[in-house]
Amino acid sequence: MKKLWGGAFSESTADLVDRFGQSIKTDLQFWQEDVIGSVAHARMLGETGIISKEEAQILIDGLEKIHEAGPEALEIDVEDVHTAIEYRLRELVGDVAGKLHTARSRNDQVATAARLMLHNELLIVLDQIKDFQRVILAQAIEHKSALMPGYTHQQHAQPITLGFHLMAHFWALQRHGHRAEELFGLANYSPLGAAALAGTSFPIDRHMTSAELGFTAPIPNALDATSDRSFIMDALHVCALIMIDLSRVSQELVLWSGREFGFVKLHDSVTTGSSIMPQKRNPDMAELIRGRTGRVIANWVTLATVMKGLPIGYNRDTQEDKPPLFDSLRKVKDSLKLVQLMLETCEWQLDVMAKSTHGDFSTATDIADYLAANGMPFREAHEVVGKVVIGCNERGIVLEDLNAAILAEIDADIPVGVLSVIQPVDSVNSTS
Questions:
Q1: pLDDT tens digits for 303-337?
Q2: Is 153 a catalytic residue?
Q3: Is the domain 110-147+160-195+219-349 a CATH 3.40.1160.10 member?
Q4: Pick the catalytic residue: 12, 52, 269, 274?
C-alpha cells in the first residue's frame, strides 16, 4: 500500500496495520474538496515565492486534470485520499508534485477538506429544508380550515386544523435551517497553514488561501486548527435534531395511515407490500426514517465519545470523525426527500379527520374559557365543566348534543351562552 511517509522506517508495516489504518474508501467522499484546497495552497506557494510561479502553475494544471477526471482515476491501494491525489499528480507532472506538500501537513489538509465538504453539504441540506417547507406551507394553506383533533398525551385534547398541525412542523424545520446557517458561519474558518500543529517557518499567506477557499478568516491558533472537531460534532447534532423531527412526522404518518385512524392514505410510490398478505400497504419508508434516526443520534454520541479524552493536538482517533458525518448527512438528505415525497403524494382523509372530533369532549376547555371570560374564576369554571361532562356521560350524550334544557338540568347556573362554543368548528374559529 502506498504511503506518504516511511523514510525513517527500516521495515514495512504489517498488512493488518495497513488495512486497519486505511481510510481511502471514506476519504474519497471529499476528494474534490481536497483537490480544491490543494489548488489554493499551490497558488499561494507560487505567489509567496516559496516555489516558483511556473512550478505552482504546473501543480495547478495537474490538479485541475485530476478534478476533471474524477475519483475513478485515482489509485485506491493507498493510505488515504491525500496520498491518492499526490501519487496521481506525480504521474501527471513528475517530481515537481513533491513540492505541493511544502508548508503543509495532512493534519491541516484534512481539516480544511472536511470544512469545505461540510459547507457544500450544508447548502444542500438548507435547500432541501426550504423545498420541504414550501410543500408544507402549500398544504397548510390548502387545509387551513380542515378540522382534526389536536392531541396531548396522544389523547384528543382540543380541536385544531390540519393546516395548523402542519405548520408546527414548518416551524420546527425553520429552527433546523437556522441552526444549519449558524453552523455554516461557525465552521467557516480556515485551518490551512497550521501544518501539523505549530504552523510553519515558510513565509506562507494564510489569508490568501482562506479568502480563495471562501473562508471568513484563518483559525488564529494552529494547534486548535488541527485538533478541533467541534464543527463536525455540531453538524452531527444538527443532523440528529433534523432526524428527530422527521421521525415524528413519520410516526404520525405510520399511525394516521392505519385503519384505526384513517386520516391519510400514502401513495403507492412510497409504500411497500407484504410477501404473504396481498392487501397490505406498509408505510416502510416512514418506519425506516423512524428507525434510522437512532443511528444518526448514535453518530453524534460516537464522535463525542471519541473526542472526550483526547489531548489537544492531532490524534489518529479523529480519523473516526468522517464516517459518522458522511453517514448522518446522507441519511438526513434522503429522509428529507422521502418525507417531502410522502406529503406531496398523500391523500388526506379530511372527512374522517373532521368526524373524529365529534363526541370527543374536546371543546370542554372552550366552555371553561367562556365562563372565565364572563367573570367566573377559571378553577371554578374547570369544576363546573367537569360536572357538565359527567352529566353528558350519564345521559349518553356528547357536548355537541347539549341544548338549553339539558344544560339547565345539569346546572341551572350555567349561562346558556356556552352553547355557542361547543362545536369543534366554533372552537377553531375562536382561537387567536
A1: 999 999 999 999 999 999 999 999 999 999 999 99
A2: yes
A3: no
A4: 274
